[in-house]
Specification:
alpha/beta, TIM Barrel, eight-stranded parallel β-barrel, 16 helices, 14 strands, globular
Length: 431
């Protein structure tokens, strides 16, 4: 045990409770025939909750944590504190990067040994708790060796380092029975074409991902391989910009049946989309895997990774997830961090509890909209014309035949309202 969360008891569901508790999230509440916990599949992000020191581009560390010692003693203490938070929140999952859980060694081998020691500690703790691993991943963006990318780096030695790193992290994820393995392309992009061979970098990125898929099958990993689209983190031209870009990349290398996407709300916004757009497109393409539930500061225009607090946005996100049939191996990871001035252990607990409540409210609103056919009925009505034999036959016809039919039948369509404001009012009645 640590002293960090010493005065904070496990949270309970109490709609009228005082202090930090769940007012909306009840893991056993049934929603559309499934427990709420099994719908939402919450996960705590190890990096923002336990590794981030509270810095930003204009200011250094503000958090003081007893495990910020950059040695194995601190890494072990961090693991103790992490599982204490998981217990307090009652979450079923967590996620990690390799660099979050171990100190950097003087060599790759030393870093690997540090990592594997903490993975073994995780395994012991997971045996004594209900917490499971939603996904593992490798941090291939923070260290200066990755300044020009990871799989897309012009230096083949960096490519090799990344391949060894991903192998180690996949082995750990498999050992801990993780549900997914994620690849984050934080620096898979470029600043200028003046020094970039774009074709070579894309080919190397495709080959790297193919190796990952091959290794998944070699070791018998039954989880899902995920890519997280990143529109501007931190380069101008990301190779994994949004869901559509990632899907085109997967198709080019024949991986669209092997790899799905982990979609972050903040990245969807930075790509110029809504979260629900990215989710709906992934659903239509058959690649919806998992989500990072956070939000951006809409005034700053940057990836601020804040805990969600907008119920209407969250409801529309879970609406698309429910339309997809819900999560399979994926879940709701809080890739979110405290504000730099939120220093206390209580802040970390309250942030997660509030976010879990927001997601619970959004899920229930989304479920009611689906059960009431509130949006699907008007959607079907809008496209009803395509159900006629003439419309279906047209899709198998040709331009000459269609043009002849337009003139012969005197077709002269009149526009009909899309009823957007009416439908927005419908949504507002549920949230």
């Amino acid at each position: 045990m640590t002293d960090f969360f010493a005065d904070i008891a496990p949270l309970r569901h109490d709609p009228e409770g005082e202090g930090i508790c769940f007012r909306h999230y009840d893991p056993d509440e049934m929603v559309m025939g499934k427990r709420m916990e099994d719908h939402l599949r919450f996960a705590v992000a190890y990096w923002h909750s336990f590794a981030w020191p509270g810095g930003d581009p204009f200011g250094g560390q503000t958090f003081q944590r007893p495990w910020f010692t950059d040695d194995m003693a601190g890494a072990r203490l961090k693991a103790e504190a992490a599982f204490e938070l998981f217990e307090i929140l009652g979450v079923p999952f967590f996620c990690f990067h390799d660099a979050d859980i171990r100190p950097e060694g003087a060599s790759f081998a030393e870093s690997r040994r540090n990592f594997e020691e903490i993975v073994d500690i995780f395994g012991q703790k997971m045996e004594r708790s209900k917490v499971r691993l939603l996904w593992g991943t490798a941090n291939m963006f923070s260290h200066r060796r990755f300044m020009s990318g990871a799989a897309t780096n012009p230096d083949p030695d960096v490519f090799a380092w990344c391949a060894a790193t991903v192998k180690t992290c996949m082995d750990a994820t498999h050992k801990l029975k993780g549900q997914n393995y994620v690849l984050w392309g934080g620096r898979e992009g470029y600043e200028t074409l003046l020094n970039t061979d774009m074709g070579a970098e894309l080919d190397h990125m495709g080959r790297f991902l193919s190796m990952v898929v091959d290794y998944k099958h070699k070791i018998g990993f039954e989880g899902t391989i995920l890519i997280e689209p990143k529109p501007q983190e931190p380069t101008k031209h990301q190779y994994d910009y949004d869901v559509a870009t990632v899907y085109g990349f997967l198709q080019r290398f024949g991986l669209e049946k092997e790899v799905k996407v982990n979609i972050e709300q903040g990245h969807a916004i930075l790509a110029g989309h809504s979260f629900e757009h990215e989710l709906a497109l992934a659903r239509e393409l058959g690649v919806l895997g998992s989500i990072d539930m956070n939000r951006n500061d809409y005034q700053s225009g940057w990836d601020t990774d804040q805990f969600p607090n907008n119920v209407p946005e969250v409801a529309l996100a879970y609406y698309e997830i429910l339309r997809a049939g819900g999560f399979d191996t994926g879940g709701t990871n809080f890739d979110a961090k405290l504000r730099r001035q939120s220093l206390d252990a209580e802040d970390l607990v309250a942030a997660h509890a509030g976010a879990m409540d927001v997601c619970a409210r959004g899920l229930k609103a989304a479920a009611r909209m689906l059960e009431d056919d509130a949006l699907e009925a008007p959607r079907r009505a809008r496209y009803a014309g395509w159900e006629t034999p003439e419309a279906q036959a047209m899709l198998g016809s040709d331009l000459d035949s269609i043009a002849a039919r337009v003139e012969a039948e005197g077709i002269n369509p009149e526009p009909r309202s899309g009823r957007q404001e009416i439908l927005e009012n419908v949504v507002n009645r549920y949230v």
